[in-house]
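re the bet — no i am not wrong, look at it urself. input seq straight from the record:
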Amino acid sequence: MRTRRAAPPVPVRKNQRHLTRAERRRFVEAVLELKRRGEYDEFVRMHAEFSVTDAEYRPRPAHMTPSFFPWHRVYLIEFERSLQRIDPAVTVPYWDWTTDNTPAAALWGDDFLGGDGRLGDRQVMDGPFAHRHGNWRITSGIIDGRYLTRSFGRFGLPTKEDVDRALQEPVYDTAPWNSTSRTGFRNHIEGWSAGGPQRWRNHNRVHRWIGGSMVGVTSPNDPVFWLHHSFIDLLWNRWQRAHPKAGYLPREPLPRSDPQHGRVFAFDEPMPPWGARPSELMDHRGLYRYA
């Protein structure tokens, strides 16, 4: 009689504040090795290539679009798998910025991601990703030079109340399916609005709070990008559980008469560069889970 081989355990993404010292070290070492191999910079370039704005008349898979969540889900999966080819025990932790919301939070420690940039040039001087240690040279930056930069606190981080308001949205996304969508969970979390003190919300506000390398399309140059988007992915999961009958929108490809025809991705349309469809990314439980 044949015995069935047990399925491999599903990787667990943990809150960064609950990582052991050894887990932090292993994550850092895997990221640095990915950088040495040249693979990390390919992820940065990919994000820059597919971060298309409303004003551009071409397909828009990553930002200002309904596929914001599924595109970044597969992007994180591919990154996590690259780390696991170096160290199978590594997963991408998440940063709950509604709780760990000060520069004193553990993730900014010298043994993990390093802290704020210095005055003047905003260069990060501590931690394993500081340029002066020789391990982290920026090669695909648009605004900054060759080193990691941060400038904490120009905007306050989002609160639990901000997130709760987004999670209460009953519909996934709404026309015109871009940065001007006034309702819908996607844009409430992605965080585009029409100006004023609340111009940047939730996801966008976190990028702005960190500042430096995290502002702009090459934001994965800062390794905190992955922890931030791991939490964004978790928030999508929470919204799905809170609204089990509300699915991804638009469900069908938009008609040619719609200004967004050919620019946004419906439920079953393949997203570049992988050809993955939003419909294939609605449930992550077979791939990883959150602690």
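see?? The chain has one domain: 12-290. told u. also The radius of gyration is 19 Å. so pay up
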